[in-house]
Amino acid sequence: MGQPRPARNQSAWWRSAVIYQVYVRSFADGDGDGTGDLAGVRARLPYLAELGVDALWFNPWYLSPLADGGYDVADYRTIDPAFGTLAEAEKLIAEARELGIRTLVDIVPNHVSDQHPWFRAALAGGPERELFHFRPGRGEHGELPPNDWPSQFAGSTEPVWTRLPDGDWYLHLFTPQQPDLNWDHPAVRREHEEILRFWFERGVAGVRIDSAALLAKDPDLPDYVEGRDPNPYVDRDELHDIYRSWREVADAYDGIFVGEVWLPDSERFARYLRPDELHTAFNFSFLSCPWDADRLRTSIDETLAEHAPVGAPATWVLCNHDVTRTVTRYGRADTGFDFTAKAFGTPTDLALGTRRARAAALLSLALPGAVYVYQGEELGLPEVELPRESIQDPMYTRSGGTDPGRDGCRVPLPWTAAEEHAGFGGEPWLPQPADWPAYAADRQADDPASMLSLYRAALRLRRDEAGFGDGPLDWLPAPEGVLAFTRADGLLCVVNLSDGPVGLPGHSRLLLHSAPLTADGLLPPDTAVWLRA
């Protein structure tokens, strides 16, 4: 299955790790039914080892009706049969670890599926209603929702309350199939701590926490007022006691957490990263930042500054399962990302976007801290504009069909150019474009100029060369539109976002470039380079 790689800095591996995000449903289909599964992942572990990643983060693989891509969990202790079995998950965790690759699982603590045993019992009128947010409605006959909170799905105008035949309403910040849990109830807290122990005991190295800032709610459930402090359901102070208790669980297993924390206030963001809470959190400022030197530098500086007081490492990510793929986003007139700005038919220059995405890969991999790579980014996959009848994402339906949703970045991966369905397996659950074989991993593996070859070379250098990973960063003087900085041991990174070629600082060795230099040794536009002083 491949040769194990020695893990670097075992005690704090997560501070410098490259973590690969696996959206199982779209990764590889091992049984030919058109849905990616654990058998498909196990068969591709040698590919992931050769790529050079340190860990795998799996989106939810639990039993789920898939009303929201698996983020509606019916049972955390059961693998969804579409993906495999718990025994297969345990084998996958062990086999990956033999290759030097750790595993992180996804926990969704804000809500469960409406098929979860707790909620089914609550619907039957049992005491389990206390585990959720059930309320009588407003209005003369209770016909109005208990409050006016907005949906967490951008562009959705649908209410976050659903009324039952008995007249009560229940809260769901996402879809009606995802009822929010009541984190004031001790049984909710106990259950999630047991879920953490369950997976740590099966060998996982860490947990990614979905919607980490949403769990706690104002018990009075007041109406939403823009700018109200504290917010009735985002970033409430009660959350920190929850995560302190979780940290005690993780520390008993030497496990780590990464939180999905979308907050504009850097000081409040940093609170989640105090030494007795979460280890790391996703950096959404960098992910959504346009391809602009000044704004990228500001994002990098602010990220490092907000992490410094609590001693936590930064994380860097260009794309994930919710976000427009990098080569597409960087090829558009607006190169940033905003959920509210997504629209059908947005023009894209893929050649330009690909060139920028290659440079951005070297930029992110040279920054201090950990890096997350979403599956298919190493293949340079573009966002797919799917036929409307194929879209399954509730973002599309809840927006009334104006938001294209997130399925465009979830199209199943191409593995083998000459095989049916580009080697994914059976007929994919989302349709692949006609040009998908051109991006196949087997074709790119033999092309030294491919995106896959670039990622493999970059990850190999990041592991073998001194100066990468966690540590200091110092900016160098550079022309307008150019980012240039040094890391430890004489490592330099230069990224040219200007309109013309620029000279390079003095160096003894060129380690890697995202595109060839000009004939006279200049760095072309939209190109990055790693140097050794």
Which short descriptors sum up this protein?
single chain, 533 residues, alpha/beta, TIM Barrel, Immunoglobulin-like, 3 domains, five-stranded antiparallel β-sheet, 15 helices, 18 strands, 26% helix, globular
Structure characterization notes:
- The chain is built from 15 helices and 18 strands.
- By secondary structure, the protein is α/β, with parallel strands linked by helices.
- The protein folds into three domains: 18-110 and 186-458, TIM Barrel, CATH 3.20.20; 117-171, no CATH class; 469-532, Sandwich (Immunoglobulin-like), CATH 2.60.40.
- The strands form four sheets. The protein has an eight-stranded parallel β-sheet with strand order 11-10-9-5-2-1-13-12.
- Strand 10, helix 8 (266-271) and strand 11 form a beta-alpha-beta unit.
- The longest helix is centred in the C-terminal third of the chain and has 17 residues, at 350-366.
- The protein is globular and about 80 Å long.
- 48% of the residues are buried.
- Mean pLDDT is 95; it is low at 1-10.
